[in-house]
Input
Amino acid sequence: MDEAPVTIFVCVSCRRSLGDAEESFDQPGRGLVDTLQARMRDGGHTSVTVTPVDCLAVCKRPCTVALAGADKWTYLIGDLDPNSHAEEIVAAALSFAASENGIVPWRERPNSFRKGVIARVPPISA
Ligand code: FES
Output
């Protein structure tokens, strides 16, 4: 399967509450970037770039990622857990890269992507 270059943008600014105190939070996107970069490197998936970004405007649904590529629909996904969903994100990104236009068949989408999809935006060429 040919894979076109794609990017996973990961918000590293989202705050995930860890308790009632206002200062009780972590920023799970930071760890998710490291995990995804390692998985792509270790798996030899050179077609996928993992890029940290400061905000994807979905601040209440960490972790939030966007899948983007030239001439592909862009998907915005939230509610991702950096530990339990890392493999699903990798699989989804590879399916996205292999797709003609970024639309991955429903049956090939991981549950976390089915539940967490926030938006999809057509490519300029559409
Ligand atoms: S801070 Fe993460 S989407 Fe806004």
Summary: Residues 6-121 form a domain with the Glutaredoxin fold (CATH 3.40.30.10). The mean pLDDT is 93. The helical segments are 28-42, 86-98, 111-116. Residues 11, 13-14, 55-59, 64 surround FE2/S2 (inorganic) cluster (CB under 6 Å).
